[in-house]
Each structure stands twice: as C-alpha cells, then as structure tokens.
C-alpha cells in the first residue's frame, strides 16, 4: 500500500503543472496573477496563519484627496489592489515609505503600524482582501479604541 501512496503522490506533483497549463489555456479566458509572494511589501516574510475559523473579506476603501488614514495594523494576512490613484504608505517602525500605484497589487504588512496618505488630486480606490479569522478584527487602530470594532 505504501508503494501506491508514493506513486499517487508522484503523479499529483507531476500533474500539478499540467493543471495550471490547462487553466491558462481555456479558450477566451486569460488568467493573470497580480501578486504572489511569501513576503510583504516591506520585504519581510509573511507570518504563519493564525488558529481559528478562516474568514475571507473583500473591502473597498475610497480615500479623498489629501486624506490620511489613521495609524493602524492588520493582525491578519491581507493584500490590496489599487484600482484608482496612488497611495503613499509609511511604515512607522522603520520610517520607510512606499507608494502603492494604480493597477498594481501588493501583499500588505502584518502586525506592523503604518498609515497611508492620498497626496494626489483624485480619490484613491483600494480593494483589500483579508484572509482573517472569524471574530478577529482585520484592522486595529493605534490609540483609537472606538475604531477597533471593525
């Protein structure tokens, strides 16, 4: 029986690339990976997922010109797609900034205090994908407990 498990495991690993090729060759359908990484936009390795019931959320955020998000962190894994505009994000512990550009996707930082500012003249539109845990807030605001009920 152990020999059969080894053969089946080998077949699965050999067929995985084939299934990816088949997915990408569906007539009239195009697949494009926007971002895939084991590291966040600051270059740090992503933490292991936390225990609990997984809960996926997709949130659209619109940030007016000149607006600044409060300092916050995400205790869960998440990614962001910048649908419109660009957002300057500052990572507090390193005093680093990165500009998230329109039409690009990014792996967000986890458990790191940061904030974003729209320095443009048009609203910024973000689509955020949270891979959270049921009952755990996706965003925690620093020094603002009333906002931590998200």
UniProtKB/TrEMBL annotation:
<dbReference type="InterPro" id="IPR011051">
    <property type="entry name" value="RmlC_Cupin_sf"/>
</dbReference>
<feature type="domain" description="Cupin type-2">
    <location>
        <begin position="61"/>
        <end position="128"/>
    </location>
</feature>
<dbReference type="InterPro" id="IPR014710">
    <property type="entry name" value="RmlC-like_jellyroll"/>
</dbReference>
<protein>
    <submittedName>
        <fullName>Cupin domain-containing protein</fullName>
    </submittedName>
</protein>
<dbReference type="Pfam" id="PF07883">
    <property type="entry name" value="Cupin_2"/>
</dbReference>
<dbReference type="InterPro" id="IPR013096">
    <property type="entry name" value="Cupin_2"/>
</dbReference>
């Amino acid at each position: 029986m152990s020999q059969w498990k080894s053969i089946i495991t080998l077949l699965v690993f050999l067929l995985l690339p084939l299934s990816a090729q088949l997915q990408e060759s569906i007539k009239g359908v195009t697949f494009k990976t926007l971002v895939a990484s084991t590291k966040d936009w600051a270059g740090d390795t992503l933490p292991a997922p936390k225990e609990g019931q997984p809960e996926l959320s997709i949130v659209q955020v619109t940030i007016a010109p000149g607006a600044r998000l409060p300092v916050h962190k995400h205790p869960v894994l998440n990614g962001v797609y910048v649908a419109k505009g660009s957002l300057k994000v500052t990572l507090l512990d390193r005093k680093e900034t990165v500009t998230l550009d329109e039409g690009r996707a990014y792996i967000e930082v986890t458990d790191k205090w940061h904030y974003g500012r729209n320095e443009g003249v048009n609203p910024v539109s973000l689509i955020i994908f949270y891979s959270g845990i049921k009952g755990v807030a996706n965003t925690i605001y620093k020094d603002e407990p009333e906002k931590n009920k998200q």
